[in-house]
Write a structure and sequence with these properties.
- The protein has about 375 residues and is of the alpha/beta class.
- The protein folds into two domains: about 140 residues, Rossmann fold; about 230 residues, no CATH class.
- The protein contains 17 helices and twelve strands.
- A seven-stranded mixed beta sheet has the order 7-6-8-9-10-11-12, with helices on both faces.
- Strand 3, helix 5 and strand 4 form a beta-alpha-beta unit.
- Helix 1 crosses helix 4.
- The mean pLDDT is about 95.
Length: about 375
């Protein structure tokens, strides 16, 4: 490409970015320190979760230039064109969906000590190429999630409470869906994730994606998925699941055990990256499972390891630092006399071990002062 052409496109993209009026995301506070360091800031996460908006906010605060490599005018941009970009611009570089340019890592490695570089990508394989190994130890990665409940309240100008939380359950956390209150966008997002962010997509991977999201929060085994997909080997199923995880469409949660060897053989659960996305599938549209998925999204922002526990009783989520259990949580849509003992018993087992526990609900029909409304927990504790 011509250097003048590159400069013209980038100046236009940067100018448009500076015009955007956007809400601040909580993760931006964690980035302040790293904007002053030489490490490359890497933003990963599901498509449409807000990576670009975060880049815009950083651009406004720290200056520099923004480059969107999904712009069709840059479709022929190649590794050698980075030299022209470097000459034509100054200040921090915000390189959006940079994986579209093969070999981008070599350029970033060369310039990151003299210019601040922020890159983004919608697939976890962003740093898995042979070239990317040269960046090992030179990056700091932030996974960008859909909006937490706290962020949802800020975006909508609402207060914590049952009404706002039910709205959060309905819309999910994708920023544009929340602002426009337009759930039809979720179907477009689902298609874009499948066909643009998953390499090697095929009919069985599509079928598996729909099945797992339809069964969010329910236990499964790779053997059962092998039968469902009618494939010969469990390794094939595992590869397909990893493809869906790398596109950040979903997350596999393991049963808690101190034995890593046993962990892989135990049943697992899966949660959608966003409960709004999960609600597209009728089988998961019931309020209890959406509630569980919403809690998982918010717990994911803690950057801790999340497990479930199943023995004589079940615990929905164990929040761990490596394998040290820090918090045990059960959540139910409606707490009643019929389920209160079942929900509390396994929590009390962990409490006796010195673990912080919490029973969460949306409605409490027991008349007892027990547990905490989920909206209070998410707005006060997390």
């Amino acid at each position: 490409m011509d250097e003048f052409e590159i400069k013209e496109i980038v100046e236009e993209q940067t100018e448009n970015a500076l015009k955007e009026r956007l809400f601040k995301r909580d993760v931006e506070d964690k980035m302040k320190r790293w904007m002053k360091e030489e490490e490359v800031i890497v933003l990963t996460g599901v498509r449409r979760s807000g990576k670009t908006s975060i880049m815009f906010n950083l651009l406004k605060k720290y200056g520099g230039v923004y480059v969107n490599f999904e712009d069709e005018r840059l479709i022929n941009f190649s590794l050698k064109d980075f030299d022209k970009l470097e000459r034509a611009t100054e200040g921090p570089l915000y390189l959006d969906e940079v994986q579209n340019v093969e070999g981008w890592e070599r350029f970033v490695r060369r310039v990151h000590k003299k210019r601040k570089v922020v890159v983004s990508g919608s697939n976890a394989s962003l740093l898995e190429s042979d070239y990317a190994s040269s960046l090992t130890g030179r990056t700091i990665t932030f996974r960008i999630l859909p909006l937490s409940y706290k962020e949802f309240l800020r975006f909508k100008g609402l207060k914590p409470g049952k009404h706002s939380f039910v709205k959060y359950l309905e819309l999910g956390g994708f920023p544009a869906v929340v602002i426009k209150e337009e759930k039809r966008l979720l179907k477009e997002y689902f298609s874009a994730i499948l066909y643009r962010d998953i390499k090697g997509i095929n009919q069985k991977v599509e079928k598996l994606a729909a099945y797992l999201l339809s069964n969010a929060g329910k236990p499964f085994t790779y053997r059962s998925l092998k039968t469902f997909l009618n494939v010969k080997h469990e390794e094939t199923v595992k590869r397909y699941v990893r493809m869906l995880e790398k596109a950040f469409l979903l997350k596999v949660v393991h049963k808690y055990t101190l034995s890593l060897k046993k962990r892989d053989s135990y049943e697992k659960k899966v949660y959608a990256v966003d409960h709004g996305l999960a609600s597209l599938f009728p089988r998961v549209a019931d309020s209890g499972r959406l509630l569980e998925n919403a809690l998982f999204l918010n717990l994911s922002a803690l950057e801790k390891d999340i497990y479930f526990y199943k023995n004589s009783g079940e615990v929905d989520f164990l929040v761990c630092d490596n394998l040290k259990v820090e918090k045990a949580l059960n959540i139910t849509y409606e707490l009643s006399q019929d389920n209160i003992k079942r929900e509390l018993k396994p929590l009390n087992e962990w409490k006796s071990k010195g673990v912080s526990t919490q029973l969460l609900y949306l409605y409490n029909e027991t008349g007892e002062d027990v547990g905490k409304p989920v909206y209070a927990f998410l707005s006060e504790v997390l």
